[in-house]
Write a structure and sequence with these properties.
118 residues, Thrombin, subunit H, 4-stranded antiparallel beta sheet, 48% strand, globular
């Protein structure tokens, strides 16, 4: 891993995804296993970091959305990267400024709630 880290999220209970080379065109996402104690708290890493996907200009946002798509915020160019499951690079890069978003440096995903019909 590099010194300039970006966003992070869990791929699963035991694998952390974390951005590397943050805010550069050579940004990427790495995966690393985590070690847990008997109470389930993370106490360290297990094994070396491995390449997961390219993520140019990754910043502080990294989150899974619908259908397992991984979203990453890009800074300084104000982008939203979309990485489909099984892919090692963004399949789509959305320029947020063109959509009147001034700066997207972080992100999160929240499932939409549906009101129940009574």
């Amino acid at each position: 891993m590099t010194a300039s880290l970006g966003g992070l999220t869990f791929l699963n209970r035991d694998t952390l995804l974390i951005g590397g080379n943050a805010n550069t065109s050579s940004g990427y996402i790495a995966q690393i296993g985590v070690s847990r104690d008997g109470d389930g708290h993370i106490v360290g890493s297990s094994g070396p970091a491995a390449f997961y996907a390219t993520a140019p200009n990754i910043d502080g946002g990294l989150a899974f959305g619908p259908d397992g798509v991984l979203f990453a915020a890009g800074y300084f160019n104000n982008t939203l990267l979309q990485i489909k499951p099984g892919s090692t690079s963004p399949g789509k890069i959305v320029r947020c400024r063109a959509r009147s978003v001034r700066s997207a440096r972080s992100l999160s995903y929240r499932k939409a709630s549906r009101a129940r019909a009574q």
